Amino acid sequence: MKVKEKIVPFLTTAYCLALLNFSVWAQTSIYIAPNGSDRNSGTKEKPLKNLAAAISRISSAPSGPVHLILREGTYFLPKTIRITPAVLKEHVVKIMSAENEKVVISGAAPLSGNWTPESQGKWKTFIGKSKKVDQLFCEGRSLPMARFPNLDSSARFFKGTSADALQPERIKTWTNPAGGYIHALHQAEWGDLHFRILGKTGKDSLKMEGGWQNNRPSPMHRQHRFVENIWEELDAPGEWYYDSKSGFLYIIPPIGVNLSSTRFSISQLDELFHIEGTAQKPVKNLTISGLTLTGTNRTFMHNREPLLRSDWTINRGAALYIEGTEDIRIERNEFTELGGHAIFFSRYNRRGQALSNHIHSIGGNGIAFVGDPGAVRSPLFRYEQTQTLEEMDLTPGPKSVHYPAECKVEDNLIHDIGTIEKQVAGVQISMSMDIWVQSNTIYNVPRAGINIGDGCWGGHIISQNDVFNTVQETGDHGAFNSWGRDRYWLPSIEAVDSLVEKHPQLPYLDIIKPITISNNRFHCAHGWDIDLDDGSSRYRIYNNICLNGGLKLREGFDRVVSNNFIINNTFHPHVWYASSKDVFTRNIVTTAYAPIRVRNWGLKVDSNFFIHPQGLQEARKLHTDANSMSGDPLFIKPQEGNYGLLPNSPVFALGIQSIDQNQFGVRSAELKRMALQPPVLPVLFLQKETSTDIMTWLGASVKNIETLGEQSASGATDRNGVLLVEVPKGSQAASNKLEAGDIILAINGQAVNNLTDLFTAMQQNSWQGQVELKLLHHQQILQRRVQLK
């Protein structure tokens, strides 16, 4: 496979040298154990007690490999472990757990003291005055601060939000909310905003700071917000509050928890390991393996550095922070119950690897690669910023070496991240080059599973990943998402057309290498499966299965999309440039394309296969797809999620090839056992629809209008439309005040005559998060805006 031929050499050369070192010099092993002593020699029989003490001995070890072997137990770090070139000298170093022993590295400190009862189910213990207390862990699991609304694990946003969180009537009840926090979604659901409460400015208003966590700033979402760390809101089991003036920590015990026999700890550190060298003198040949990293502070208030013109700001910090390194290897670790990011490759890094890690239940990103803006030529940082051609550095590529490159993310299980921050990703890439993201399983994330924030500088390979249950708490995004607001980019399509007509090289100044997305499986319920947004250019997209959200190409240049299977959705071309040079060919789509402001159709849109025949008819009205076909593609077992092709599939006539169904996601046996699978979504339009079919829409049962009785009971003039048969309490349909007997007549102006029309319209519009219904309700025609999430 060509991909391997390209990548493998730069990933293995250093390790071949390391192996050579192993064969020449004897290995030094230094043991650490919770019951050890730092006065010991560090042997297996006389281990050291602290990891920091063991690391300090590396520089004086004999030449050759050094293994720091941690014995089973929990190591509560009093301060961040810092590793520099001076610490490692020229040694090849591995920090590892002893075989088959569980080693926990925690940024928390154990809590000791007796609990005494207070009123209203509260208990308290004295921990000292004026402490910083950010996370309280009960048997290693984070508990919620006193909050409103109370924690609801079934709620989609922030585990519970309310428009009443900041009502004046509620604020009046707070005696001293200073030190509290406000968390909210971005008004457009493009991520999140967070504020620290500084005090009250009157009886019913607040003084606060923050809101810098998004590079497309906006007011807070009116509905999706909550407050925490306020004494008066301490009213539910599991909640806690620390009074810094009195020094007492208060808690309402979680149900079933005996305070006298339960272990509690309080987070102390933002980072567990801080590994930092420079491009001139990097940290080299370090491996961290087999550890569980946990117990760090939340860092959402540190998240304020803008990342070029993407929607992101970032905090350069993580449980494992890596900068100025070569040949770093992070393998088989667990990252859990962290307040911020798990792994962060910052600025200069070469040939770093993150392999077979399990990352879950953390506040921020899974694995991030973020270069230095100083390496970018003519950088701009806000969406609305622009520069003239005369102001622009027209030299292609990076300005310096201070960015991650030739790095690999493989066989990692990443899920349930972004528990605090929502503008996050399982893998985030910005201002980097040649990052290989392969065979990872990523799910249950609030925004993208994999995100590329800009076109600097390409060469990335995204392959054989399984990415699903994405964009769970936000909107207008993708399971895979990218931006390309590079140095030449302008919000005006016409302005870019004019520039590129005169200077055709402009789109290639930053994206100096193509980006490949191949052989992945993507699923997004509230956006697109693959979303190439503003300016994303020079992509090669092939052999992907898109399970639900479709594939979107917004304005950009030189994208080639072929041999992708787009299930239960379609191709979404948005506002293309006049000379885009885009190609969309030999793909399977389900329904008609959903273009928005497309004035031309690139180099080629043809030889595609439409499952729904009307889709092909509509495409030809756009003067595309003269050689395309429609029909049943003959998937092997679509009802079980197997979209391989039977030998007699008609799509082979177009040159479309089958896609291996067993290549997606993690490979290691242990991670495969733990990993979930994406939802099985049989192809809707391969089902034989009859008038009596009852299907589910927004949790309600819906069907075609079949009988005169159904028509009469609803007051319909004919049998066009879709009838709501049953609307269960708690369903999304019920929350939108839809009722049994209502008839849906149109969605966003598209007529809905039957179930096929309903689901076609939904596929084309669901990314918006809301639609406008034309509804027959109590024999009156109404227009109603319906929230889809």
TrEMBL record:
Record's keyword terms, sorted: Signal
InterPro entries linked to this entry: PbH1, PDZ, PDZ_sf, Pectin_lyas_fold, Pectin_lyase_fold/virulence
Gene3D superfamilies named among the record's database cross-references: 2.30.42.10, Single-stranded right-handed beta-helix, Pectin lyase-like (2.160.20.10)
Keyword Zinc listed: no
Taxonomy, superkingdom: Bacteria
PROSITE patterns given in the database record: PDZ (PS50106)
SUPFAM superfamilies: PDZ domain-like (SSF50156), Pectin lyase-like (SSF51126)
Pfam family, one: PDZ_2
SMART domains assigned to the protein according to its UniProt record, in alphabetical order: PbH1, PDZ
Segments forming domain PDZ: 683-756
Leader sequence segment: 1-26
PANTHER family per record: RIGHT HANDED BETA HELIX DOMAIN-CONTAINING PROTEIN, SECRETED PROTEIN-RELATED
Protein name: PDZ domain-containing protein
Taxon lineage: Bacteria, Pseudomonadati, Bacteroidota, Chitinophagia, Chitinophagales
